[in-house]
Each structure stands twice: as C-alpha cells, then as structure tokens.
Write a structure and sequence with these properties.
Radius of gyration: 28 Å
Strand content: 15-25%
Structural class: alpha/beta
Helix content: 25-40%
Shape: globular
Largest sheet: 9 strands, parallel
Length: 671
C-alpha cells in the first residue's frame, strides 16, 4: 500500500498544474467591498474599460474609463455597478453587458495575483478578457485604479454615532445586553416559502426587502398573515424603498431583522444574540408554497448553514474572513473572546416540537435514545448550545404549555395533527397551562363522565378556569435532560407544561445543574423563581414597556418576576424579542405622547442614536413601535425611560445580562 501511495502522489504532482518559480498564487479578493475604481485590461494607456451604447469596450483612456463600484455578495464575490447604475452581467453570448438589476449572471468571482485581478462569472465560471476592443468571456486580468464618480449602492445606515462604552468592563465582565430569544434564520424555516424577505441578500437590500406578491391579496401569504396576526391581506406588498405597509410589529410573515438592523442593535449595546433555529413540520405541510423539506431536522440543518452564510456575508462587507462584527460563538470562551474584540457574539440554539424526530403518536414515541445521542452530536457540530426539549406540541419528551385564546385553538389542532390527539388536561389551581378558548364545565364534565377520559380526549372542550396538561416528563425526556447536562448545554424551560417543567427542575436541582433558562415569558412565575434560585438565567418577552393590546408589559413582567425570585439571585436580567418567530413585536407605548423617547437619544452603552431610516421610510418608536429589529436600540432605551425611578436599576440589570447568561453557561459546562 505504501508503494502505491508513493506512485500515486508522484503522478498527482506531475499532473497538477505547477506555478513557475517565484510566481504568486491567485487568492480570493476579499477586500474590495465599496471600492470605486477604473479597470485597465492591458499595459497600454488606451486599454481601459468604457461603457458604450450597447456593452463595454476596452480601448478607452483613463479619462474616458467608466468608474465601477464593487459591492460584496459573498467572500470573494461581487456585484459590479457602473457609473450609470448598470449592473454588469455575463450575457449568454459571452459578452459583458449592463443590466438593470442583480441576478445570478450579475455575480462575479474575483481573485488577485499580485497587482492583477481576474474577474469571472460566478454562474458560468467564464473569465473576462479584452478581444477586438470588447470585454468578453475569456482568460484575462485587469488592474484597478482608485476613482471617483461611482454610482451609490442602496444600503441602510445604522444612525448610531459617538463613542460607546467598552464591550468589556475593567474587571473582565461583559458590558451589554443579550437578546436571548430571536429567529434571524426563519427565512429558511417552514419550507422556505412562508415568509417574505430575508435578513441579507447577495443583491443587497433592494433584493432582501423587495416585497412579495405572494404575500398580498394575490397570494397565500397575504391571507396567512391575516390569519396569524390580523394584518390586512390587501396591504401594499411593496417593500424597498417605500415600505408603505410593512414592516410593523404585527407583519409577522415579513422579514423584521435585516442585518443592518442587527448591526444597529449591536452598536447600541447588544453583546450576545441567541439565534434560535426554528422549525414546525405541521405549519410547513399546511402551507403549500414551500421549496424545502418539512422534516424539522432538515429545516434546522438548512438554517445552521444559513447562519454561517450570514456570517460570511457580513465578513464580505467588512474586508474578509473574520473581519465582520457578526461572529458565531460555540462556547462561553468564544463569547468572551468575541466581546474582547468589541464584536457581537451570536450563540446558536434550536426551538422545535419534533426535535430529532421525537414525536409521540398517541403516546408512542417515534425515536430512541440512539436518535437522541446522534441528534445531539449533530446539533453540537453546528455550534448549537441550547435546546427547547418541548415546543408547541406534546412530544416524546413531555407535555407542552398550552397557547391561550384563538391561537390556542389553532395550535391545538396542530397538536392533533402531530400527535394524533388534542391537548388533554385536568383542572388545576395555582400555576396553570392557560385557559382554553373552547370551555364549558357542563360539556367537559359530560364528556368525561361518558368516556372516563381526560378533558380534551374526545373534543377540544375544557373546563372553565385554569387547566394543566396531564402529560409530564417522559422517560425519554429524562434521558435527554441527562445528556444535555453531561454536555453542558442550556436547557430552555419555556413551553413546557407545568408538570414537565417541575419534573425537569426537580432533575436539574437534584444534580446541582444551573444551565437552565427562561427567555420569553413562556413559564409560570413559580417556575421562573425556581430557575433563578438555581442559578439559571431569566428574561422576559420584549413587549412594550406597559401592558397594551392584550399583551403584558415588560416592566410588569420584570417587577413580578423580581418579586418572586430570592433577593440577589440574579445579577442580570434579559429579554427575548422572538423576532421572526410568529410573535408580535413591541407596540408603540400608549403614553408615548406624554413621555416620548426623544431623538437623538443616548443608548444604554453611551452611543448616540438617531431615528432609523430605511429607504424612504423613517421610523420612530413612539409611533411605529418596534417595527423592525433596528428599533431594538430604541426599545431598550425606552423601557429604561418608562421605568421611572426604577430605570437605573433596570439599566444595570440589562447591561449585565450578557455576563449573567455567559456565567450561567460557563457553570453548566464545568458541572
């Protein structure tokens, strides 16, 4: 075998192209984003690229050359935009032509060898060269000379200025807040067709936030939004640059977290961002406009890659690999190292009902311990550090905490599709799993008397008042919790029914494990107090500061939870926006006219923040609420303002929240 390998290696060396002695290998040109230059295709003075009446010529002087802007689409890839706004593309005839918009033929891969650049079509692989005075497909190179007069490329400014406080305090602790619950990869979830818009796009903001006819009265998305959030199906679907009707806090099927908005939040004090991969097979299968698999693990895999694509995109906008402000963190050590560079640490979690395929169908588990072990291995290879063992439906791990109201009725139908049964419940006092919309003591009692079965078994009709899921933590669920503890993973308690949550906390408390969290007001106050007292992490849903539109206020949640927790049990308090997660964002505060957030304002980290401008639209939290993620900077300042005399204490807790989460995670990993 050794002789064969030696011969094979020798043959490969002979066949492989060899660089001449002293030659420099081509490498990706990663540092051209935002460059304005003229291009020369040869050594003579009259070999510059010009724009003619049809295409591009290569016999111009430097004075007649067309300035071209380079806009990164990925690492080593670019859009090329000429001074008239034409987007250069490779035609099917093999000539470089100006186009009116970005497309796959308008994407260029650029490498650099010394001072020379090779520009090739990303789609076809064809290089470019000068031939008979035209710029066409072929093997050639260009040199770049800095220029002025380039067309502007559409983009979004963050509106943040000034000198912020350091990302790390003098004592080494993190200085900043955590969004502990967000879904910035949801564009790839639910089959890929449920949502309109993306957090980034190779073609820039004009493509990412263009709007979709599929999400108007002409498509299913318009009626889906009306059903889920009560939005108007006849709203104007157009996005960039006017944004007449979206985004708003309730346009839940439209992108709400464009990457520049995330950047604005980071520049205003966000230190850690918990990006939760999200999936729901039932929603995916019901919604017919899908382009990817509905298998929930497949959806998580797609989103894990998409998150890395997003990191690469930000790097491409910032000068090359590792240069961007958006950095994925797989460990607490990563978080601290990223913060030390002043960048945003993006941790990864997963929130779905059929984790590892672990459905239960009429109480029969559809997975094994081997599936759990393999699934945990795979998710950790993606950098996933936290999981929701239970989400919207009962599963093989335990029972869910019910949604309430009309949404509860809809989710209960989903539970029936996933498991073969409706939620089954019993009356309970104290901590409950929420009242149900279809409730009648008489009908519920009659059905139970006739069948002898729990409420909800025959029909989704429940007693008046509080009810609790009859399902608790299963044997498989206990196994999953043990494995998560052994791996130092964060166990998210939210969405577990009371019985399941109590059993999980019994298990973690007995083991002395503190890696537990509640991040978006989906746990009862009694459960939250246990989490805090065990050294876990506590955060509330980022609702408006005060109760509004049937939703609890952030300040009330914070005060109620603080009263329930033992004094001194938490040193940092967080929030979860649930952005892109089919949950409303914070509405404009009802008393904002009397107590407005005044622009420009001082962010929690000391930066100066003005109103956000996206295209032709200017946003104001006082009137628009948290219409998109960029307004998180405004929201954090606003809740501190609305807290009045409690404002300084709340600010300190929020700015300690990234440190509190990281310490909790560190303790879990050394358990």
């Amino acid at each position: 075998m050794g002789g064969f390998l030696a011969v094979a290696t020798a043959v490969a060396l002979v066949i492989a192209p060899q660089l001449p002695a002293g030659a420099v290998a081509a490498e990706p040109a990663n540092d051209l984003d935002g460059t304005c230059a003229i291009l020369r295709t040869g050594s003579g003075a009259s070999t510059h690229v010009t724009r003619g009446s049809v295409g591009y010529g290569t016999r111009g002087s430097a004075a007649s050359a067309v300035p071209i802007r380079f806009e990164a689409t990925d690492l080593g890839r670019y859009r090329l935009i000429d001074a008239r706004g034409g987007q250069l593309y490779m035609s099917v005839l093999g000539t470089v032509m100006p186009g009116s918009s970005y497309g796959t033929r308008a994407d260029w891969t650029i490498t650099k060898t010394g001072a020379n650049y090779s520009i090739s079509s990303t789609l076809t692989g064809q290089g470019t060269r000068s031939l008979l005075g035209g710029w066409v497909a072929g093997s050639g190179s260009v040199t770049l000379t800095p220029a002025t007069g380039c067309a502007n490329a559409a983009d979004v400014a963050t509106g943040v200025s000034g000198t912020p406080e350091p990302a790390v305090n003098a004592d080494g602790t993190l200085n900043g807040f955590i969004d502990a619950h967000a879904h910035i990869t949801a564009a790839k979830a639910f089959g890929g067709g449920l949502r309109c818009g993306t957090p980034f796009a190779e073609g820039g903001v004009e493509v990412a936030l263009a709007g979709c006819l599929s999400h108007s009265a002409l498509g299913l998305g318009g009626y889906g939004g009306a059903l889920i959030a009560g939005t108007d199906p006849f709203m104007n679907p157009k996005g960039w640059p006017t944004f007449e009707d979206w985004p708003t806090p309730t346009t839940l099927l439209h992108e709400q977290a464009y990457f520049r908005g995330i950047q604005r939040a980071w520049e205003s004090g966000e230190r850690v961002h918990n990006a939760l991969l999200v999936a729901n097979r039932v929603i995916c299968e019901i919604y017919p406009d899908r382009v990817t698999s509905c298998n929930e693990m497949d959806q998580l895999r797609l989103q894990a890659q998409y998150l890395r694509d997003m990191q690469d995109y930000v790097d491409a906008q910032s000068g090359g690999p590792g240069m961007g402000w958006f950095r994925i963190a797989a460990t607490p050590e990563d978080v601290r190292a990223i913060a030390a560079q002043g960048k945003l640490a993006v941790i990864v979690g997963a929130e779905n009902s059929e984790l590892f395929g672990c459905r239960e169908i009429n109480d029969v588990a559809q997975c094994t311990t081997a599936d759990i072990d393999a699934g945990l291995d795979e998710l950790q290879s993606f950098g996933v550090s936290g999981l929701y063992p239970v989400h919207k439906f009962d599963n093989a791990f335990g029972g869910t905490r019910f949604d309430s109201g009309a949404q509860g009725a809809a989710v209960n139908i989903g539970n029936r599709i996933s498991t073969g049964h409706f939620w089954q419940a019993e009356s309970c006092e104290g901590a409950t799993d929420n009242e149900q919309p279809l409730r009648s003591d008489e009908i519920a009692a009659l059905l139970k008397t006739v069948t002898g079965l729990p409420h909800g078994t025959v029909a989704p009709v429940y007693p008046q008042g509080g009810v609790c899921n009859i399902r608790g933590l299963t044997e498989l669920g206990g196994y999953l919790i043990d494995q998560m503890m052994d791996r130092g993973m964060v166990i998210n308690i939210d969405h577990m029914g009371i019985k399941t949550a109590d059993a999980v906390l019994d298990q973690t408390e007995a083991a002395g494990y503190s890696g537990v969290a509640t991040t978006h007001s989906w746990s009862d106050t009694s459960i939250i107090a246990r989490i805090a007292d065990a050294g876990g992490f506590v955060a509330s849903y980022a609702n408006s500061a005060e109760p509004q539109a049937g939703r609890g206020g952030f300040l009330n949640d914070w005060r109620d939870n603080s009263a329930a927790m033992s004094p001194g049990s938490v040193t940092g308090y967080g929030f979860g926006t649930d952005v892109n997660g089919l949950g409303n964002q914070a509405a404009a505060r009802s008393n904002s006219a009397e107590l407005p957030l005044v622009y420009p304002f001082t962010a929690l980290n000391g930066a100066t923040v003005d109103r956000e401008m996206v295209g032709q639209r200017t946003y104001d939290l006082n009137t628009d609420g948290m219409a998109n993620y960029g307004l998180l900077a405004d929201w954090t300042a606003d809740v501190v303002l609305a807290a009045g005399a409690d404002g300084p204490a709340l600010k300190e807790l929020l700015m300690n929240s990234a440190e509190a989460y990281t310490r909790m995670w560190e303790a879990a990993r050394v358990w």
